[in-house]
Design a protein that fits this description.
Blueprint lengths: L19 E9 L1 H9 L6 H4 L6 E2 L5 E8 L5 E5 L8 E5 L2 H23 L4 E5 H8 L9 H10 L4 E6 L3 E6 L15 H6 L1
Helix pairs in contact: 3-5
Amino acid sequence: MLNLQAIFRRKAEDFPVWDCVIEKIVELPEAEYKYFKTAPLRDMPFIFENTDLMHRDGNGVCHCLLVLGEESSDGVLVESEGYNYARYSSFMPGAREFLTARLNQLAEQLVQEATQSTSNGTWAICFDEIQDRYHVPVSTNNGIGKMLLNILAARPELAEVEAMENSFDMVFCQDYCPNLDEKERLSPEMQMNL
């Protein structure tokens, strides 16, 4: 089935959209998420804690939160404009799938670049570089970093990945590193022992 939830407007003359940047993902317990969706104009602690992240910049881009439920695929974009409630909000069907697909694409790009570039099987990429090059705000506490870390950790190319304060540090399986220095290669026996 192709079931989903959507917001319909009667006799809509247009569909105004805003350019948005998700600055942080807030994942709520399912009951709290359902409550939030039925009462978005009530003050919410998670909005109060993140008011500094939400605004419209000089180019009209909306910097917002993406609020998810632990068991939901949909989400709600929130720009509070400094208030403690969802002053501006947009229901986003399939938000979790959208986010997962985008972060999988980013992980693919990061892994491809790193495996092609590393000469010793390790690679580090700073969160600022990810922001500058791929326009994805990543940090250890914005939810996006955690999701991306989990996606990277599941990649077969990676033997180990760790989120540091400002970067991801990665160690790759040598079979995926075509430009590995010969002196860095481990013998098959050593690989088995590791």
